[in-house]
Design goal:
The chain is an alpha/beta fold and 304 residues long. The chain has two domains: 236 residues, Rossmann fold; 48 residues, no CATH class. 46% of the residues lie in helices and 11% in strands. It contains eleven helices and seven strands. A seven-stranded mixed sheet has the order 3-2-1-4-5-7-6, sandwiched between helices. α3 links the parallel β1 and β2. α2 packs parallel to α3. The longest helix has 27 residues. The N terminus and C terminus are likely disordered.
């Protein structure tokens, strides 16, 4: 049966509204929320990444829906909600986006009542379970000491988590904890979630997908769901747990470009070397020192 045809019974709009109300009460109580401004996640930041993010979502999400029945989804670290907006266009109406208090509500690509602020560096929860949670290129922005609790919070939201996070030396805006996928797989494994690597091989050479999504995106699935979904189980059996850490060619070329730029700058700033050049510099320094001393003596003799 096609995964979309096997979707679970949709929950009512009132159900997700009640969830949002409960979340809002926590906000009022100051539980798990933090009102902060951010110099790193500005209007310009989100506008810069929006186009590539949406294009990537339009390629990746239909693949996910082929394998997984989804009628509700929560996006943790949703940014402006571009991925959730693509979910809506694909027929998934029950959505919730969670991100920092600093998020400008006017930038949201989803209804504002489907967004809730939270401090993602601390444990958080929502009073319901979704079919799918997603968190894409978010975990690297959180302190290393938050990693374990962050993964635990994601696992509490859904039996399947679409996840990606920056690898070491990937670079980016305010990255605090870049890790290889193996590390994240270990943390998810503590909660009985297993990595299913079916997205990357299907988008690896697709230029419409930003390389960081093509390089890092894995689906972590709770063991009981994996056993009940033949398609996902087959993909899991084809997943090589020892080869989760890969580097995309576009990432490699990007880093190579940065290296070459740095090498050129270093070459231009490199001090002269060699005996002849050193002698020349010594004579110049000596000349300047003698001139300074003479001017000093002359200046003293001219005083009354």
């Amino acid at each position: 049966m096609h995964a979309r045809e096997a979707a679970t019974k949709p929950r009512s709009a009132a159900a997700i509204s009640n969830c949002c109300v409960a979340f809002a009460k926590k906000q009022e109580a100051g539980i798990g929320l933090k009102a902060v401004s951010s110099e790193h996640y500005t209007k310009g930041f989100y506008e810069k990444i929006r186009s590539g993010s949406r294009r990537s979502a339009e390629v990746i999400l239909p693949l996910v829906l082929e394998f997984l029945p989804v009628s509700s989804v929560v996006d943790v670290g949703c940014g402006d909600g571009s991925w959730l907006d693509v979910f809506r266009k694909l027929g998934v109406e029950e959505i919730l986006g969670i991100d920092g208090e600093y998020m400008d509500r006017n930038l949201l690509q989803i209804p504002q009542d489907r967004f809730r602020p939270a401090d993602l560096s601390r444990p958080f929860e929502v009073e319901r379970v979704f079919d799918l949670a997603i968190s894409l290129e978010v975990a690297e922005h959180l302190p290393p000491e938050s990693a374990s609790a962050f993964v635990a919070s994601l696992c509490g939201l859904a039996p399947a988590v679409l996840f990606s996070a920056a690898i070491p030396f990937q670079g980016g805006n305010h990255h605090l904890n870049e890790q290889w996928p193996d590390k994240w797989a270990e943390l998810f494994g503590e909660h009985g979630y297993l990595a299913v690597d079916f997205v990357r091989k299907r988008v690896w050479q697709n230029e419409a997908v930003e390389w960081w999504y093509a390089q890092n995106t894995l689906l972590f699935v709770r063991r009981d769901l994996l056993e009940s979904n033949a398609s996902l189980k087959a993909e899991f059996e084809r997943t090589s747990s020892g080869q989760l850490h890969v580097v995309h060619p576009r990432q490699y070329l990007y880093l190579q470009g940065l290296y070459r730029e740095a090498a050129v700058r270093a070459e231009n700033l490199r001090p002269p070397s060699g005996l002849k050049e050193a002698s020349r510099l010594f004579l110049i320094c000596l000349k300047n020192a003698v001139r300074k001393r003479i001017y000093s003596i002359l200046g003293k003799e001219s005083r009354p």
